[in-house]
Write a structure and sequence with these properties.
199 residues; 9 helices
């Protein structure tokens, strides 16, 4: 199946089958795919937390507003976090990146307000989200990206230190009666001419 067909068939799953679990080999592949995600200057300001433990999912469900049932029923919940300690981030890139990348950060980003730099770091994590959703679709795994979470609550449950939660993605297999699947509900998108222009 080519990528256009995957894009046509992929959708945001609203109801999961809690009896179906993703095989471990696919989870390992997804972890490696996330590790290989692109980011500006190869900054990699992230950690990805895969949660399959039912008790932990129950705790995170309490911090997930209207997404609570998805969190409980899905095979795995993947929490996307971003580094929030700029000194720690600078230490990381000095250790792992090429001098040109470190120089770019110090010259063009470090002088900016802290919130601007942290926003830039968060944008890198969102790049990995698109990569991840496409990977899930290619592997026959359903997914639900969720910004509707209580971030501080997630940080507390996961006992994060130096990182903070941005969003989570439920991954698993749809319930056969999920009303949002394209076979039952046509995808709604703006016309091509509205969103794509050629010059």
């Amino acid at each position: 199946m080519d990528f256009l067909q995957l894009a046509e068939q992929r959708y945001t799953t609203k109801k999961y089958d809690p009896t179906k679990k993703i095989p471990e080999y696919k989870i390992q592949d997804l972890k490696e795919i996330l590790r290989l995600s692109p980011s500006s200057i190869n900054s990699q300001p992230w950690r990805f937390i895969f949660v399959s433990d039912d008790k932990m999912k129950e705790e995170l469900a309490k911090q997930s507003f209207f997404n609570d049932q998805k969190v409980k029923d899905t095979s795995h919940l993947v929490v996307f976090t971003v580094i929030n300690d700029l000194d720690k981030f600078e230490e990381q890139i000095e250790k792992h990146l090429q001098p040109g990348s470190v120089g770019y950060f110090k010259q063009f980003l470090k002088p900016l307000d802290e919130e601007v730099v942290k926003s830039w770091l968060s944008h890198q994590v969102y790049l990995s989200l698109g990569f991840f959703l496409g990977a899930c679709a290619s592997m026959g795994i359903d997914s639900t990206p969720m910004e509707g979470i209580e971030k501080e609550g997630y940080d507390s449950v996961l006992q994060l230190d130096g990182y903070t939660s941005l969003f989570a993605v439920a991954i698993g297999y749809r319930d056969s009666e999920d009303a949002n699947q394209p076979a039952l509900k046509q995808k709604s998108r703006l016309d091509l001419e509205t969103v794509v222009h050629s010059i």
